[in-house]
Design goal:
CATH architecture of the domain at 8-167 and 197-225 and 269-285: 3-Layer(aba) Sandwich
CATH class of the domain at 8-167 and 197-225 and 269-285: Alpha Beta
Order of helices and strands: EHEEHEHHEEHEEHHEEEHEEHEEHH
Number of strands: 15
CATH superfamily of the domain at 8-167 and 197-225 and 269-285: NAD(P)-binding Rossmann-like Domain
Structural class: alpha/beta
Distance between the termini: 39 Å
């Protein structure tokens, strides 16, 4: 389908780092209804995806042509300690959205996660069988399974290590490293025994916009090109901010952070965009190019320009 000005696009989870990028991209071309349980922007309408009645009323009011289901609990430690909430949001919430999408004949888009694999392989294609280790991974995988059970017209886009959202909305690794840099840390500790494929939210949102219009429905890995460890990412950001002479990035193992990050994580979360490449629809860029672009936000903040 063509995404145009009269196309009604409902976004759940608009208040997060990916939601911000998706809202910016789709609102340029379509009539967007942005929702989130946390109303942190004036353009967001409150919606709790675990409440079927609230979701049903919103669907009836706006009759969306496309539903971009981004709402999720993504904090692995929180999900590990609160599995019921994880399944309520990541699984039941997804089922609510899928059922209503079927009722209203909407195309539904689900954001999957590289965290659904066990890390025993080095790379995972679209066709590898998931085996999640954490409660977060399980809840996301169950949500993923619901899409083809309920819908004919759906997309699942699996993302890797997210980066984007800026200083206010980035809750992931990049911003955690940046905060240490800004606070004057001389040493930053990063692990080299966890590897993956970064995914830049703005690149991801644009790729979603383009692939949705092909009507080639189904499941796609969609991550930036190139792979790395957390250590590699930290070093790259330090270099991009010209702090390599002031800050040492020290290699540690995951056990170093076992108190803070106790949820089980796979060794490898490397995804390959097999199907996108085979269909000439791989619009993702290299993670280093994306990080270079993204780092300008932090550089401006360091120099007091934002």
């Amino acid at each position: 389908m063509d995404l145009k000005k009269e196309t009604r696009v409902l976004i759940t989870g608009s208040g997060g780092m990916l939601g911000d990028a998706v809202y910016r991209r789709f609102s340029k071309e379509c009539k967007v209804i942005a929702t989130d349980i946390d109303v942190n922007e004036p353009w967001i309408t409150k919606l709790d995806v675990t409440k079927l009645g609230d979701c049903a009323r919103l669907f009836s009011k706006y009759k969306p042509d496309v539903v971009l289901h981004l709402a999720a609990l993504t904090d692995l430690e929180y999900c590990q300690k609160n599995p019921r909430e994880a399944y309520m949001t990541n699984t039941l919430g997804t089922e609510n959205i899928a059922l209503l999408s079927r009722k209203h004949n909407s195309i539904a888009v689900y954001i999957g996660s590289a965290g659904i694999f066990d890390g025993k392989k080095e790379y995972y294609s679209d066709y590898d069988v998931p085996n999640p280790l954490s409660e977060y991974g399980k809840s996301k995988y169950y949500g993923e399974q619901l899409m083809p059970q309920i819908l004919d017209r759906y997309y699942i886009f699996r993302a890797g290590w997210m980066m984007g959202g800026g200083i206010k909305k980035d809750k992931k690794f990049i911003n955690k490293v940046y905060r240490q840099i800004k606070n004057g840390s001389n040493v930053i500790y990063a692990v080299d025994d966890k590897v993956g494929t970064p995914t830049y939210t703005y690149n991801f949102a644009d790729a979603m916009f383009r692939v949705i219009q092909t009507e080639l429905y189904g499941l796609y890995n969609m991550v930036c090109h190139g792979d790395c460890s957390r250590l590699d990412v930290a070093k790259e950001l330090v270099n991009l901010l010209n702090k390599q002479d002031e800050i040492k990035v020290k290699k540690v193992k995951s056990d170093y952070f076992k108190k803070e990050y106790f949820a089980p994580r796979p060794y490898s979360e490397k995804l390959v965009n097999l199907k996108l490449q085979a269909r000439n629809m791989d619009f993702m860029r290299h993670w280093k190019d994306c990080l270079k672009e993204y780092s300008t936000v932090f550089a401006s903040d360091l120099h007091g320009k934002i």
